[in-house]
Design brief:
- Helix content is 28%, strand content 24%.
- By secondary structure, the protein is of the alpha+beta class.
- It has one domain: Maf protein, CATH 3.90.950.
- A hairpin with a 5-residue loop joins strand 3 and strand 4.
- Helix 1 packs across helix 5.
- The radius of gyration is 18 Å and the shape is globular.
- The structure holds inosinic acid.
- The site of inosinic acid has 16 residues, from strand 3.
- Inosinic acid binds next to strand 3.
Length: 210
Amino acid sequence: MTLYAATSNPGKLAEFAGAAQTCAITVLALPGLDAIPAPVEDATTFQGNADIKAAAYSLAAPGLLVFADDSGLEVPALDNQPGVHSARYADRPVLEGSSPPASLSGSLDQRNNALLLQRMESLPPSASRAARFVCHLALARDGEILLRSQGSVEGEILHAPRGAAGFGYDPLFLFPGLNRTFAEVPREEKWRISHRGIAFRNLLQQCRLL
Ligand code: IMP
């Protein structure tokens, strides 16, 4: 069986393909992905956005099994922000009635992390710093969703970034079981414990039912 990943992120693709090797499923990048108009991800949930992507990209690739993921960070003390806005958190013009501070600079990941820290610092010192990464996956063929899966991993938001690996909020996300951030663990180790790894292994198991 071959699954086609609707992602242009080479890191994610390598992780998906590596995990699938253990169960004789081949994962390939969806051919011509860049030429397919990206659907508007306007759902209010991760699963809704994963469904939108899987349905749209599978319609553009008739007959192929296409999967898409949507993921992000939820901080309960911030009403589960950044949530579905994780990717462009710092670029949203108005967040819950307040504008992102002008002092944010650097790459989008750096600005997202800086804004998250600022929002955390505005909470009372006793506020919980608990956080979770969440990943939802959808597998579709010809626009029809066939399978869904999800994974999450619990952690804590540090007061300052640590580590140079990974991407996104990894440097701020402490995984208590290892006492390291996701930016301090090798990719294979992160994949073993991460929201995306959990969700994808679950999807692969379900593929046996197809
Ligand atoms: P995507 O929709 O899966 O590409 O991810 C949305 C955003 O959530 C990313 O741009 C990151 O900011 C954040 N995110 C999702 N997964 C991770 C992760 O494993 N580490 C760090 N940040 C993540």
